[in-house]
Amino acid sequence: MIDLEQLLTSKEVAETLQCTPKHVNTLRKSGDLPAMAIGGMWRYDPRDLRQYVERQRRAGAQ
């Protein structure tokens, strides 16, 4: 179940990943980082963000 109080904005994801919100949008559009539109704004589940980071970590270890 999604914890609606914990959904992240593009800006919060960008701050966490230390990148730009534009890059977060690129990740969303490519399907690398799932998101949902709520009220015309994109929101991200922290669990999806953790999974994305783990995939990147594993890819970097190869």
N-to-C SSE series?
EHHEEH
Beta-strand residue percentage: 5-15%
Helix content: 40-55%
Q: Sum up the overall morphology in one term.
A: globular
Strand ordering within the main sheet: 1-3-2
Distance between the termini: 32 Å
As an assembly, this protein is single chain
Question: Could you give the count of β-strands?
Answer: 3
Strand count, sense and barrel status of the largest sheet are: 3 strands, antiparallel
Structural class: alpha+beta
> Which stretches of 5+ consecutive residues score pLDDT under 50?
none
Count of helices?
Answer: 3
Rg from alpha-carbon coordinates: 12 Å
| Mean pLDDT across all amino acids | 93
Layout of helices and strands:
Elements: E1 8-9, H1 10-17, H2 21-30, E2 36-38, E3 41-44, H3 46-60
Antiparallel strand pairs: 1-3, 2-3
Helix pairs in contact: 1-2
Describe it.
It is a single chain. With 62 residues, the protein is of the alpha+beta class. The protein contains three helices and three strands, in the order E-H-H-E-E-H. The protein has helices at 10-17, 21-30, 46-60, and strands at residues 8-9, 36-38, 41-44. Strands 1-3-2 form a three-stranded antiparallel beta sheet. A hairpin with a 2-residue loop joins strand 2 (36-38) and strand 3. The protein is globular. 13% of the residues are buried.
